[in-house]
């Protein structure tokens, strides 16, 4: 008995720390699920996990009070519906840990403008002649603070976020070089087969590209998105290339190996129209999300419980953060 408990305690201590978050900047989509949330769920036993709602990040692009609050609750419901277990994972809201903005400030003072100008998200926005606010420009540094303040070992993300993890590593190194060893260097955790889920127009599925299939949309919303998936103009009888088809790329997420192989054959032999392929995909998606929808509904009927889960998560996160901030402030020299 004692041995078992000792082992569990020891094992608990040995677990690596996982941390990740999603911005409440819109409705989550199947790219967010397969690229990020599914991994949080799959890894929740293996890692000491913290998953947060990145509301400070969202206000770089969303400055509507009602919409932001609604999105925050929605993401909490999404996390829980997708299978994150609050008994295993520390679920919290970023703005409940305002210390991250303090840490981001220390990092800002070590970061040069040209370094941040190399960030892909900033370069994209510039290329589109978008006005970039200082918050959006500084996004990678706040993200570095989110990760480093909790001493995360791994950060499961989609491939689009890889550069941000590199920024976090660079920033940790800069701080360590300036103020002495303080932070460990986090690793990204990217599953190759779902690194980038394509949207209905074939580009990366993104809330901001408006090319998404919403994970918890109504049947009608999901159908509308699926039916709009862009294809070439081949007739049903034509032979088709599954590897360049946006619909097929999405089937890959839902079908078992054998079913996918059969579908591949139907594509290459001809006789399968894109409309039929889309209808099949729609059914796969709806079947897949049914149990998650039911769970979401259950939590949506008890929002106080959801708020308590987030408040408890914030309390737990604060314990780690307060300890770390003491060391950071000491090392920076603001503790007198
Ligand atoms: P935005 O357009 O506002 O950047 P987004 O749709 O890219 O939104 P984020 O909140 O930036 O979503 O991303 C949340 C998580 O989901 C991140 O880990 C990101 O890498 C992952 N993710 C987002 N889109 C995809 C995608 N198409 N394929 C795989 N992973 C994705
Ligand atoms: Mg994104």
Provide structural commentary.
It is a single chain. This protein is mostly helical. 57% of the residues lie in helices and 7% in strands. The protein is built from 15 helices and 5 strands. The chain has helices spanning 2-14, 30-42, 55-58, 65-82, 99-108, 113-117, 120-127, 134-137, 139-148, 162-179, 219-227, 246-254, 257-269, 274-300, 303-332; strands spanning 17-22, 48-53, 89-93, 154-156, 187-189. The strands form 2 sheets. The protein has a 3-stranded parallel β-sheet with strand order 1-2-3. It has a two-stranded parallel sheet with strand order 4-5. Helix 2 links the parallel strand 1 (17-22) and strand 2 (48-53). Helix 4 crosses helix 14 (274-300), helix 9 crosses helix 10 and helix 11 packs antiparallel against helix 14 (274-300). The longest helix has 30 residues, at 303-332. Mean pLDDT is 93; it is low at 1-12. Adenosine-5'-triphosphate binds next to helix 2.
Mean of the pLDDT scores?
93
> Main beta sheet: strand number and arrangement?
3 strands, parallel
Tell me the fraction of residues in β-strands, as a range: 5-15%
Return residue spans where pLDDT drops below 50 for at least 5 consecutive residues. Answer: 1-12
Strand order of the largest sheet: 1-2-3
Compute the CA-based radius of gyration.
22 Å
Question: How many DSSP E strands?
Answer: 5
Bound molecules: adenosine-5'-triphosphate, magnesium ion
Shape: globular
**Which structural class do the helices and strands define?**
mainly alpha
Helix content: 55-70%
Order of helices and strands: HEHEHHEHHHHHEHEHHHHH
How far is it from the N-terminal to the C-terminal residue, by CA?
47 Å
How many helical stretches? 15
């Amino acid at each position: 008995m004692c041995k078992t408990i000792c082992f569990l305690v020891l094992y608990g201590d040995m677990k690596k720390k996982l941390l990740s978050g999603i911005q409440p900047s819109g409705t989550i989509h199947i790219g967010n699920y397969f690229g990020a949330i599914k991994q949080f769920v799959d890894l929740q036993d293996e890692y000491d996990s913290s998953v947060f709602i990145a509301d400070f990040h969202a206000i770089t692009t969303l400055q509507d009070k009602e919409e932001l609050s609604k999105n925050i609750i929605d993401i909490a419901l999404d996390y829980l519906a997708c299978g994150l277990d609050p008994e295993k994972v520390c679920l919290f809201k970023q703005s409940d840990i305002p210390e991250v903005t303090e840490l981001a400030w220390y990092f800002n003072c070590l970061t040069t403008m040209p370094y941040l100008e190399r960030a892909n998200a900033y370069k994209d926005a510039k290329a589109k002649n978008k006005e970039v606010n200082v918050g959006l420009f500084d996004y990678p540094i706040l993200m570095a603070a989110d990760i480093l303040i909790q001493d995360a070992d791994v950060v499961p993300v989609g491939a689009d976020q890889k550069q941000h993890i590199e920024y976090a590593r660079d920033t940790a190194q800069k701080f360590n070089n300036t103020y002495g060893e303080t932070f460990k260097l986090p690793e990204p955790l990217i599953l190759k087969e779902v690194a980038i889920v394509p949207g209905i127009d074939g580009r990366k599925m993104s809330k901001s590209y408006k090319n998404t299939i919403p994970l918890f949309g109504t049947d009608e919303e999901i159908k509308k998105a699926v039916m709009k998936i862009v294809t070439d103009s081949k007739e049903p009888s034509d032979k088709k290339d599954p590897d360049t088809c946006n619909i097929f790329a999405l089937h890959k997420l839902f079908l078992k190996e054998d079913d996918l192989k059969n579908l591949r054959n139907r594509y290459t032999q001809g006789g399968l129209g894109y409309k039929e392929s889309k209808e099949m995909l729609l059914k796969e998606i709806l079947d897949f999300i049914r149990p998650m929808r039911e769970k979401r509904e259950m939590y949506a009927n008890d929002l106080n419980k959801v708020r308590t889960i987030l408040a408890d998560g914030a309390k737990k996160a604060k314990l780690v953060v307060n300890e770390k901030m003491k060391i950071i402030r000491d090392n920076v020299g603001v503790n007198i």
